[in-house]
Amino acid sequence: MNPASSRPRVRFKGTPLLDNIFRDQVILITGAAGSVGQELVRQLLPRQPAEIRGLDNNESEIFLMSDRLRDCAFTAFLGDVRDGQKVAAVARGVDMIFHCAAFKHVVLSEYNPFDAVQTNIMGVQNVVQASVDNGVKRVIFTSSDKAVNPTNVMGTSKLMGERLMTAANVVSRNHKQRFSSVRFGNVLGSRGSVLPIFLDQIKNGGPVTVTDPGMTRFIMSLQRAAQLVLEGAIMAQGGEVLVTKMRAVSIMDLARVLIDLLAPRYGHDPLKVDIKIIGAKPGEKMYEELMSAEEVGRSLELEEMFVVLPAFRAIYRNIDYSYSGETGRKVERPYNSGQEQLMSRRDIESFLRDNKLLPEDLLPAREGPRMTAAAS
Fold it and tell me: Least packed by Cβ within 10 Å: which of 217, 269, 302, 352?
């Protein structure tokens, strides 16, 4: 059992962005054809930027985006963040960059570490250098929970990306520039997340594969992840890491809820869809961490985020690290999914429904608690 958290339960109010700093701005999104990149584009367009530039090395996806958004202020660029000259060229005249391009799969990075370094570390360096050379005012790096106490190549590379962003802010002589990071956990519904994997397994009648019955994770919707990245851009003072508050879930409970909801829709008896324990993958943690013990002493708590202040402050300027929504509560312990209150199965179902993470035609009508195979 996980200990009940003394920290207040996270409530996401979905507060609209009141400060539209994006209007009339030229915004570059790297990894624009990815799940978070595409959602950022969708949320930014109504805020009337002068132009959104999307950079991605996925030719088919960036082409489809360009075609779909041909009547919008969107320009597609085919290229890779490993190519410093390309990044510098695309960044000319840009006011703001959201750096989302990255290798995200732990196992693939373990077996291809040099490629992970090229994209996740050298790619960040290229974005930083292009930003400095072109005087980009705000640069936001989308990081990962795996950057906290990393146990694998991917997490280590994302931690280095955070440190490069903070270092860029420390040494910047341009007082108008801000380099910051936003760190969050699992985005359900994004490509590569556990949700589409579970859906395919349930559609085929199982088994549904879970690495370990005690494994917990932080989860959020794609829409909320993108919104918090935009809010991070508004709040960032420079050099800090903005840590999103998220709900924690047992992966076993998530699997059971999905089986109960969807197995009948695919013509299967939920009681006959097995859950198979396959063991943790190399470098995989039993829980997710969004803030380490070392970071606790230099962190602030806001209503919907934590702010990890830089250990080394800017050399050429004094930065006032004050934020709207500060709670005044002292951060006293690390933020990891093994220490937070876990969502109940009813909460998980509501989360999936409310965030439209499952096909509407597959969802049964809302009803009372159901008995699962494992609980019967």
Answer: 269
Cα separation, 249 vs 267, whole angstroms: 27
Residue 82: what residue type?
R
Check: CB of residue 104 under 8 Å from CB of residue 144: yes
pLDDT by residue (tens digit) across 31-64?
A: 999 999 999 999 999 999 999 999 999 999 999 9
Name 141's bridge partners: 99, 181
Tell me how far apart the terminal alpha carbons of the chain are, to the nearest angstrom.
19
d(CA 221, CA 23): 25
Residues with catalytic roles: 146
Are residues 304 and 325 in contact, defined by beta-carbon separation less than 8 angstroms?
yes
183 — phi, psi (to 5°)? -115, 125
Nearest to 184 by CA among 145, 239, 141: 145
Domains and CATH numbers, the chain: 26-362 (3.40.50.720)
Under DSSP, is residue 166 helix (H, G, I), strand (E, B) or coil?
A: helix
